[in-house]
Amino acid sequence: MKKIFALLITLTFLVTTLAACSGSTSKDAANPKEEATKQKEIVVILKNNTAPFFISVAEGAKAAGEELGANVTVKTPVETAEGSGNEQQIQLAEETIVSKADCVVMCPVDSQAIIPVMKQLKDANIPVVNLNTRISDNTMYKTFVGLENYNQGYDTAKALFEGMGKKGKIFIIEGSTGAQTSIDRVKGALAAVEEYPDIQVVAQQSANYSRAEAMNVVQNLLQSYPDVNGIFCCNDEMALGSVEAVDAAGKTGSILISGQDANDDACAAIREGKIYVTSFGNPYMQGYTSVQAAIDLLGDKEVKDFYEVQTLVVDKKNVDTFKDKK
Amino acid sequence: MLTKKQNLIDLLSRVAILVVVVAVLAIIKTESFWTVENIRQVVFQQAPYTILMAFGMSLAIISKGIDISMASVMVLSSYLSAKFFQQGNYILGILVAAGIGVGFGISNGLLISKIKIEPYIATFSIDFIALGLAYVVCNGKYIYGFPAGFRSLTNGSLIFGFPNIALITMAVFVLLYILTRKTTYGRGLYSIGHNKEVARLSGMKVDQILLSVYVINGVLAALTGVLYLSRLNAADPSIKGSLTMDSIAAALIGGIPFGGGKGSVLNTVVGALIIIFIRNGMNIMNISTNWQSAVVGFVILFSILYEILLKKLMIALGKKKEYM
Amino acid sequence: MLKRIKKLDVSGVAVGDIVLFLFFCVAAENFLNGYNFILILRNSCTLLVASIGMTLAILVSQIDLSVGSVVSMSAVMVAILNNAGCPLILTILATLAMGALVGLINGILISKFKLDFWVVTFSTMSIMAGLALVIADGATVSTQNEVLDFIGNGKILGVYTVIWITALVCAIMILVLKKTKFGYNVYSIGGSATVAGVSGVKVVKNRTMVYVLSGIFSAISGIMIAGMTNSGSPTVGNEYTFSAMAAVVIGGTSFDGGKGGIVGTICGTLLLKILASGLSLMGIPSTWQKATIGIVILVLIITDVVSEKRKNIKGLRRVYQDVD
Amino acid sequence: MAMNEENVILKMTGITKRFPGTLALDNVHMTCEKGKVHVLLGENGAGKSTLVKIISGEYTRDAGTIWYDGKEVNFTDVRQAMAAGISMIHQELSLLPERTIAQNIYLGHEPMKKGLNAVIDYKKMVRDSRELLEKLGVDLDPNIQIKKLSIAQKQMVEVVKALSFDVKLVIMDEPTSSLASREIEKLFEIVRKLKKDGVAIIYISHRMDEIKCIGDCVTIMRDGQYIDTVDAATVDLDVLISMMVGRKIEKMYERNYCKPGEVVFETENLTGLRFRNVNIKVRAGEIVSLSGLVGAGRTEIAKAVFGYDPIDSGKVRLMGKEIKRPVPIKSVANGMGFLPEDRKNEGLILPMTISENMVSACLKKIFRNGFLNARKECEIGEKYVEYLKISTPSAEKTVGELSGGNQQKVVIGKWLETGCKFLIFDEPTRGIDVGAKSEIYKLLDSLTKEGYGILMISSEMNEVIGISDRVYVMKEGEITGELNRGDLTQERIMHYAIEGKERINA
């Protein structure tokens, strides 16, 4: 008897919490299977469902689907931890063969590990549009939509160095170990460093794309390199973490910080002058274009093999305006 | 007598490890590591979060259980309460956070004490649920920017030199220490850890105590979540990070065996500090992050081998007279 | 037959599997589809093989936390060695040897030196995870090799090679546990190490063996992953330890040891994978999936535990009625 | 005493074993002959178990020589001893509850399939164990799981297990401690059978009556030292006792009956898992025993009234106040105490100190404000160490280090401190040596004088007859008879226990 009671309490609690949360996502829960009959099935597979960047990619993709009349389903790994995310992406890709999707938009966690399943899609001749992160084997996809993370890193880094007056010491804060975007952006930044003889990289550490970890890492680094002038971060979350760390050290303004992605928090920080520069990857556009490309593919229209989404270096000057030129 | 001596020796041995770690770092990186500023930062600003979480983990382990779900509960509670803190509606925020913590705590507690599910598996599934809900709620929208008053919860310092966060942690520590070592409740907790049946047959309120342990964990998780909000000035699902693993590691390095009934929150603090200092040192020395977990692992391994040595030593000293 | 199933001690989960399967067949279009079924099996393989090692460890009433990181390590190792131009057969042997070695270290530290298995395997876990990151330098190592690719993605008689491998491993282990001396010893030690000891079972040797096997199975799992992804990611095994423990315990193998077996683990693993596949085919947004999985697991476990209790009490009464 | 050499199978001289801090065996010697039962007698801690464990290879000796079967041997682990034909029946059951009888009997030496080694031949295993069980007159199906058996049946399986390979020397460490008279008889038959086959037997027991019954010669040990070896047939029991205790025990069962007071405990048509319609009354100042064969449901009643197991129907009254669906918390609060049969796992927290255990049942009562007070705790500990004559250097020792008798005293102290008025003793002297036994009995007696009501569950006839005011006899979960002190005889009790009431009514 007691057990049943306890069981009831537990479940009721859980259910109520579920209910409480459901409000915020009812729109996602709705699945557009109704007019599935005539419309093309396009499955968009993203890296995760927690980063603002991919949320707006998803929004862009969905919007394109509605405007251009295609049935877009966005799928992401449940597990956001690195590695397992990759394994689940493979699973999701395989399921598209089961559900007989007409076209798959793929944004791989791991450019290498995804290849075999891409082969499977090829055999099942489901065309693939590669989004945001390049798949290492370019025979696996029809077209690539996105920006070159390399360029993005390069441009931001340049802007940062200019702001620092072409000289000084910098930290590079990497994203999760093994994450492709992080690797490319760092490459870009280092390339920029080559061009500035007076810029010196004193430390390079990972903070797993996390604000909390970035804060600790930067705090610690500041101990050994108090005379640093700039911090290059591989995403805005870490940049914001660095901001807090620099704040705590009372060095706001004297240390310039650069991020990536230009999410709302970062823009706010730029307005306050806490982040010097970030770069706008225009995720919404990436999502939109990718679906557009997919539809062109299915419509046997001519498709370029690379739709570059223009990245935009964002600083105090254009922070309020850049979003308009989508 | 023997048990007490044993505990003391265990603790001292851990403290020794801590001292060694700090000393090594202080020697090879004097200028940047061995500075008041750095030590203050590590102890008062970085360690508290791990320590607070590890407290919960330790209580669970002492009662011969484990709580995998804490980190996720922390994330969820920080998320749901963030909005209120942002609007400066502190009371409501605290209520919500605490509510989530207590709620999940009760769920864990009932599953373990009444329905008698393995603590591991019970908290494992609760972990899924809590984190899952956090994803649902967050849905990619980070909540950013909190009133200065709220930020001062961690940044500010009422007593000079002691950030509030440190004060809060100390307060929690003192409370827990007294609760577990000096009260009948604590005695019950340890008895359960040693032998649940005897505790039950001695008329102890076993189920209530177990329940309370997980509720305390929930509350600690909620507290940590709120503090993170204040520290990071944002609600962010990635704060979960490796907290679960870290708090387990802290308990283990601190010398709290999974056998239950042994160790105290004091061990936890030591263990947590060891880990945090290692992390700090590796950052300072700019050693690739890849090495961190390996180093932590080696330290744990070392700490147990070293414990065995001590035990052997004690027996050799023949403190123990065995009645056959 | 029915008696058989009862003997297997997994009736609860097996039923759960079937129920879920039927449910998804109705609820999720495309779920009831030969190809999808194959996919579920294929996706279960790596976790299942890793879980078998965990099953052995839990059967001797211990745990091997190092499973996950050994998986990562072997995946990376295969990739690196293969790129270094080492012939595949050697690569695979070396990887298996690595797994065995880690197991051996665990086993010796735990059974010979009587160290706490939680702590030991926890530390080997961290160490291997760290080393995997270090040798892979934090990034995925890609590699090309027809045979390896065949192992991962090739088919024999229209069925994926990994499925064959897994089936083989499962079959062998089921027989080993049911029929051989070693299997008997595993159950005996799990039932009570002391009893086994005084009855002339080589406890130390067999326990060590269990960990060695666990390491080898993890290595096999890692090799299969390397084959499936043509690459080795140093973090691919991150979730494996916890998932494997969940699969085993859901499968009705209890932490007390000496109860349960491979069949249960198979059911447990399938359960997790059926859930994942079914939910995403139902078009449930991934934000919701984690929470849902948690709840389903919980409900299953609860029903299982409660019914188990009923059975036991019935058992007591029956003994009494038999008397008169 | 006389001994013809060619019959000697085991000869030990100068055996010495040292444990950290203590000398467990000091230059002990012993000789066993084929076809003879050699009783090993001594208090707990005398070193009997250590000695036999050295023979069976569980321990290794520090000094001394062992001749076995003509040659000098040096067993380093159990398997070697087993291979040499030495097997041991352990005091605490060494069976795996989850496995079947057959699997347990052949545990460690399972029969292999011919040809492919390492593969076990289960069919053969079952066949052999069935034969074995029949041969030894134990009527059980080898395919049953051990956990489904009664304690007595388990004990018998244990015996069968020890004889499952050809043995030359069998060591029996208190094999009868959990058997009721009927099973004991069966065991003795087996022993006699073994004697006929020329098997040597080392027999450890606390039950004096058994020595005369089956013993050939007796070796007495005390404090790890060899005292003497005497002929069982001729020796006088009191002499034996004084030799093993080292002093004279005046009277084993000492009881000055006092006039019973009001009813402290009462059950009304109590029905539970393994008993039904039980009506029991216990008055203050009384010792009431529940007797009957093992598995008759005595322990189950005790556990149920204390709230350890659920109750189906019926009433439980403490001090005249009814307790609805009892749970330990309530029972303790209402002044009931329960001293379980399995002290180590249900009575005491071994890693904790004596004082800590003493207060464990009444923390709330002692530390009203909820805060522990080390000094007070220590005082209480010392008080009982003093009062109960617990032999320990200090009350701060961990209970795990005490001997069985002293552990039992700690449990008693723990309950006295709660100030309860009604105590349930489940097998109060199980595994406790003669010296300590008589002390425990004295204690029970003095408790009754102080107005405690005591319900005792015991399989030892003598103690039931020796100290009870009244006895309820149980058979298969029902009370079949109630006997008063006046008409307490072994025959009557066994009659009710085996025949049940039908006969009597008829």
Topology diagram in text:
The complex is a heterotetramer of chains A (326), B (324), C (324) and D (506).
Chain A: H1 2-22, H2 26-29, E1 41-45, H3 52-68, E2 71-75, H4 84-98, E3 103-106, H5 115-123, E4 128-131, E5 143-146, H6 149-163, E6 168-174, H7 180-195, E7 199-206, H8 211-224, E8 230-233, H9 236-248, E9 256-258, H10 264-271, E10 278-280, H11 283-298, E11 306-308, E12 312-314
Parallel strand pairs in A: 1-2, 1-3, 3-4, 4-5, 5-11, 6-7, 6-8, 8-9
Antiparallel strand pairs in A: 10-12
Chain C: H1 2-8, H2 11-27, H3 34-59, H4 67-83, H5 88-112, H6 117-136, E1 141-142, H7 146-153, E2 155-156, E3 159-160, H8 161-179, H9 181-191, H10 193-198, H11 203-229, E4 231-232, H12 240-250, H13 262-281, H14 286-323
Antiparallel strand pairs in C: 1-4, 2-3
Helix pairs in contact in C: 2-13, 3-8, 3-11, 3-12, 3-13, 4-5, 4-6, 4-11, 4-12, 5-6, 5-11, 7-11, 8-9, 9-11, 12-13, 13-14
Chain D: E1 8-19, E2 22-33, E3 37-41, H1 48-55, E4 63-68, E5 71-73, H2 78-83, E6 86-89, H3 101-105, H4 122-135, H5 151-162, E7 169-173, H6 181-196, E8 200-204, H7 208-214, E9 217-222, E10 225-231, H8 237-245, E11 263-272, E12 275-278, E13 281-283, E14 287-292, H9 298-306, E15 311-318, E16 321-322, H10 328-333, E17 336-339, H11 343-347, H12 354-359, H13 363-366, H14 374-387, H15 404-417, E18 422-426, H16 434-449, E19 453-457, H17 461-467, E20 470-475, E21 478-484, H18 490-499, H19 501-505
Parallel strand pairs in D: 3-8, 3-9, 6-7, 7-8, 14-19, 14-20, 17-18, 18-19
Antiparallel strand pairs in D: 1-2, 1-4, 4-5, 9-10, 11-12, 11-13, 11-15, 15-16, 20-21
- The CATH class of the largest domain in chain A is identified as Alpha Beta
How does the major sheet of chain A shape up?
Answer: 6 strands, parallel
Q: Give the topology string of chain A: H per helix, E per strand.
A: HHEHEHEHEEHEHEHEHEHEHEE
- As a percent range, the share of strand residues of chain B is under 5%
| Share of β-strand residues of chain A | 15-25%
Query: How far apart are the termini of chain B?
Result: 19 Å
Q: Mind telling me the CATH superfamily name of the largest domain in chain A?
A: Response regulator
